[in-house]
Design a protein that fits this description.
Number of domains: 2
Bound molecules: 2-aminohexanedioic acid
Strand content: 15-25%
Structural class: alpha/beta
CATH topology of the largest domain: Aldehyde Dehydrogenase, Chain A, domain 1
Shape: globular
CATH superfamily of the largest domain: Aldehyde Dehydrogenase, Chain A, domain 1
Number of strands: 23
CATH architecture of the largest domain: 3-Layer(aba) Sandwich
Radius of gyration: 23 Å
Amino acid sequence: MTDAPLDLHHWIGGKKVAADRPSERRNPSDLDEVVARLPDAGQAEVDAAVAAARAAFPGWSEASPEVRADVLDRAGQLLWDRREVVGRLLSREEGKTLAEGIAETGRAARILRYFAGEALRLHGQALDSVRPGVSVRTRRRAVGVFGLITPWNFPIAIPAWKLAPALAFGNAVVIKPAGPTPATAEALVAILHEAGLPDGVLNLVIGRGRVGQALVDDPDVDGVSFTGSQGVGAGVAAGCAARQARCQLEMGGKNPLVVLDDADLDRAVTVALDGGFFSTGQRCTASSRLIVQDGIHDRFVAALAEKAAALRVGNALDPQTQVGPAATDDQMETVHRWIDTARDEGGRILCGGDRLDLSPRGWHVPPTLIVDTAADMKINANEVFGPVVSVVRVKDYEEAFAVADAGEFGLSSGIVTQSLKHATDFQRRIRAGMTMVNLPTAGVDYHVPFGGTKKSSFGPREQGFAAADFYTWTQTSYVFA
Ligand code: UN1
């Protein structure tokens, strides 16, 4: 099947806005294919989008929660029904495999439907006052206009998990998708409008980093939710703090997965393979740092290397493919630079490592397993964001824990063991926002809180019931009667 290039639009005030399209997005699996031609917003488009959101906010926030629930529910059903078509666009645009693209689209659909329910469940508390005859209640209210800045690695799930709670709780939104993946974002925005979202409640501006900066700086944007790199996130936080806007950041991870001697070997290999290499390792929750006890180390790395080397790398649309390409040329180069750094530091490449030359030509990188690394090497401190996993050998649980808990990130973490004692101790003490036993560090549920500690995250948690903490403010009301 050949797919014609899409001409993308901004969406402002419920209308598609025609624009020049100075750049194009190529399929990372097949660089000869143009997926979409992209507009490039400036200040004027951002101003118009924020003004449209501001104008739509009163009507949307004051509508019955049933109105908001119905839109999200209908949009979720439409997206679910079209998950194969939208998932295919996602795979062509971002590069994850077709199965991963369809699964991510289904997850986004379920997130929309989940928040349809949350719109009605938003609750406050009723309490007795400390003063006789007085009663107190708390109520959560919509904030206003949110700017959402989303990354390319989950081009539909992350936009969905930011905009669904924002809309469910009565806010208006301007979303700026990542430069490489606006087509999937536009598909989501179009479906929400088809589902009956009123004009101006959700606006889309496609462009470069300056669009995100304009949202951060706009006095009419009440809060910004950002997922992306730590460097950009620090600037978003500073910009929001300077004008007292709400701010929520999800950034990198270098997530440790500990494998103890008593682990079930097959389980450990399956968990590490999924966590390290699926979605091409382009997950901030990827299990990129394996910390393996001496007694199981050699058997474990040999089995993992065999499985990783057998993963089929190729065109995301080929049903045989298990690992798609890197999403961008830059990302492919970054991944190879980290592999070279690890080699220079003394790491031994057990599989992968070399450049791939596939046909059709894409930004492919091989699943790469690096052993004999020391805990303090650069490869163990920096996020690679590719199918690259490094291994540190440790003598016992205490050393494993110390290595796992070190470093500047604290997003996800995991341990593979049959010891209740070690699993419990690990989860109790590790400074990570998410912690897994006998599961990959990546691949989280959508109805429970998501977020990290240290340099991984800033601000309230995302997803599930916790999303209300960011997308509402609490009012306390007193009555004497
Ligand atoms: C997951 O592991 O299921 O950018 C989600 C990321 C994360 C999402 C991970 N914010 O990779």
